[in-house]
Amino acid sequence: MNRSDALVGASEPSDEAQQWLRAIPAAVYVTDAGWWLGEVRFVADAVADLGGRSATDYLDHPQRWLTAIGETSRLQALERLQAALDAGDTQVTLTYTLSHVDGSSSRIADTLNIQRDAEGQVVALVGVLERVATAGAGDAASRALLEHNPDLLLVLDADLACRAAAGAAARVLGASAEALVGRSLFELMAPEDAPRVQRALDEQAVTAGAVLLELRLRHRDGSYRWCEIHFAADCDAVCSVSPGWVAVARDITERRRQALQWDAYDATDELTSALNERAFLGLLRQAVAMGDVHGRLSLIVFEVDGFSDIVTRWGREGGDLVLACIGEMCRATLRERFSFGRLDARGFALLLSGKSLQETSAIAERLRARFGTTRVEFHGHWLAFSVSLGVAERRQGEPPERFLARAHSGLEVAMTHGGNRVQQAP
After folding, report:
1. For the PAS domain, which residue ranges apply (predicted)?
2. Cβ 135 vs Cβ 156: under 8 Å
3. What pLDDT, in 10s, does the model give residues 92-104?
């Protein structure tokens, strides 16, 4: 009879089997099909080197081993074990983090040989426990490489709780690697980013794949830093629900800041400091999408009357001078908050929130009067001009393109009737 067969069906291993198991230079244990939740039949003395308690203690109180495993890792291990039992497997390796009595922790690889009877029913689990090297372990050269790594290296469970950290923790987050252990990345993450990150990781968990995400993490000084994080599934932690993750995080705050500054520059008309047409229409679409929740929106669309005549008389330089003062005059005249956009060569728009059609018309009238009394000095001459304005309040459910078109129709009516007037859209 094979020695391992002596374990099958026995309430505990025979004396011969126990002698054989003790002779193995590893932390070996034997349970029924319930693992540490069920009946524990044998625990080798070497287990004390991993968990900090004697073999007898674990034999009498098996829950002490189980509760030393973090809740997420414990559930993952139980689910993976159950999947292996249901699939008829003969071996499975569970990987989890075990907390020690002294407060430290270690990564454990728990390889289980699944013993079955002639009918295929599980009668015993023979486990071999080994400590897995974690980030930061190794010789002095390896530690030096980790310490000078420009990235933050993380080992995370399925809930993104940090199990090990190394590398540029202080540089990226202002904290030591040790201080990150036990904390969830979701706890450090900007609340707005968490749902997007969760969805992306859930999708990758199905195939145990990898994904590159940009998100904000809170620095020790209270600010948020943009990080580019490469999440790769930790294959040793894959279970029937979700894997753990190995993550590499890099601070890209400066890169993001430069990109945002360039985007803002690219979206702004240099002459008038107004949003260009593409940027303004994007803002309008976003405002309309939120308008159904947050209330009313209104538009003022306007043009300089007879602008082509100004250019003919004073040249392009004179025309540009008139256009350049448009934004300044809007800001000097209006007390209300507004978004300012340039729609074409001579057309402008103001987007306001919380204003009725009548209130917006009154604002437009203030602008018309201010433009009509303004004189712009140009090479010793004074340029006078007026504007025509169309006003519209968004209707319930009205798409942004239709909303803007109605405001334009008011402008067309104002210009048709001689200009220098405000016209409400039909």
Report:
1. 138-209
2. no
3. 889 888 888 777 7
Q: Are residues 303 and 354 in the same domain?
A: yes
Locate 276 and state its tokens. 């260009």
Nearest to 76 by CA among 242, 247, 231: 242
Only one residue has tokens 């590398």, namely 167
Three-state DSSP string of 340-398: EEECCCCEEEEEEECCCHHHHHHHHHHHHHHHHCCEEEECCEEEECCEEEEEEECCCCC
The DSSP code for 295 is: -
| Domain span including residue 58 | 3-132
Q: Are residues 355 and 296 in the same domain?
A: yes
Burial class (CB in 10 A: 0-12, 13-18, 19+), 283: middle
3-state per-residue secondary structure call for 309-320:
HHHHHHHHHHHH
How far apart are the C-alpha atoms of 218 and 183, rounded to whole Å? Answer: 12
Which two structure tokens, joined as six digits, stand for 238? 């894959």
Over the stretch 185-203, which tens digit does the pLDDT of each residue have?
998 998 878 888 888 888 8
The sign of the CA dihedral 270, 272, 277, 281 is: positive
pTM flag (> 0.90): no
Pinpoint the alpha helices (H) of 148-189. Answer: 169-173, 177-180, 185-188
**CATH assignment of the domain containing 212:** 3.30.450.20
213, 175 in Cβ contact below 8 A?
A: no
Does residue 392 contact residue 288 with C-beta atoms inside 8 Å? no
Distance from C-alpha of 192 to C-alpha of 201, rounded to nearest angstrom: 16
With b for 16 or more beta-carbon neighbours within 10 A and e for fewer, the 72-109 pattern comes to bbbbbbbebbeebbeeeeeebebbbbbbeeeeebbbbe
Q: Give dist(CA 382, CA 420) in Å, integer.
A: 19
Encode pLDDT of 228-264 as tens digits: 998 888 654 433 344 688 888 989 888 776 655 545 4
